[in-house]
Design goal:
3 copies of one chain form a homotrimer. Chain A is 80% helix and 0% strand. The first copy, chain A, is mainly alpha-helical.
Chain lengths: 138, 138, 138
């Protein structure tokens, strides 16, 4: 097999898996601390916030991967790596904030959306360029 | 970096991200309308249906992406684009129906499954062909 | 379109979609058996365990795909196929155990983590090697 051309994108993808695994582990530790055994997902407010914070990260993860690789494959690998690292940092800020209070999730959430929108728009630019190049020979 | 060969598949993938983001936003607006603040996921029946509708779209999204790219990469990019657009339309019908009543989710859900089964079967056909070609030189 | 080089990885990915679809169907049948109609996700303990078992599989699915393809594209396709099949078997053991009792989910869960860690570490090895080769010409 030919070694693919984007090891940095793959490294960021693997790192984001590790990060999401770490957040899942935080939910598990919150279960223990608040004596909320599986399969329950309701319990003390702090546990419920921790669980929802993780769920939101899970919901956005495939969207993040699509935007990361669209940006990296069609626009710029360096921009995708930077956007991917920013997204992970934003997710950590979001998670830590949400564990404290529902309101404190917002700064990290807006930063998450900004990183995702950046990856999306750069990816879109590259894809439109590639479509014009391939089908209209511009 | 070499610009990859499938900008239309990437465009459909990005569009499906935008669509899922729009559905997530509908859940957020339903929260406001029904005064159901995060992290709660229980509340008035319409909010719970809206939340579950989005959750179901989230659960299927990675499966959709795998089937979309299997079909597009191993069978036909045009068929994958058509199936992908049909899937998104089906998801919208499903979501709108589910918001109204649990029963009204079914037509959109069956259309969703049909679009997904189409992408899956075409992708499978292409993959089996590629395996036979690569390993048994048929 | 050039037929891509990794039909076995694509076949394992499609198979894992089919498997996850089968587990979703088991949740649907558990709904019927326990008279728990959508959008409810609470009900008799066995239904709640079945629902959570599926949710956990859903949460891990994108991580599984990233690790599978990292291992397959950067390390070895055969190792990725083996790890992917082991992961699916582990998920089935996990699901069957969790349906019976929360405690019985653990052996399958640890096997799931072992398969995932294997794919992750082999993928990481291959990616680090590819980065060193590409940027430092080792």
């Amino acid at each position: 097999m030919v070694v693919p051309d984007s090891p940095l994108l793959a490294a960021v993808s693997l790192l984001s898996c590790l990060h999401l695994g770490y957040l899942a582990r935080r939910v598990g530790r919150s279960r223990t601390a608040h004596k909320t055994l599986p399969p329950a997902v309701t319990g003390p407010p702090e546990f419920e916030r921790t669980h929802r914070a993780h769920q939101n990260c899970v919901e956005f993860f495939p969207l993040f991967l699509v935007c990361l690789w669209s940006c990296g494959a069609f626009f710029s690998e360096a921009a995708a790596v930077a956007g991917g690292l920013l997204y992970m940092a934003a997710r950590q800020i979001y998670f830590n904030g949400y564990v404290k209070s529902a309101k404190k999730r917002l700064p990290g959430f807006y930063l998450t959306l900004a990183a995702l929108a950046g990856l999306f728009l750069l990816g879109l630019t590259g894809i439109v360029h590639a479509i014009l190049h391939k089908y209209i020979h511009l």
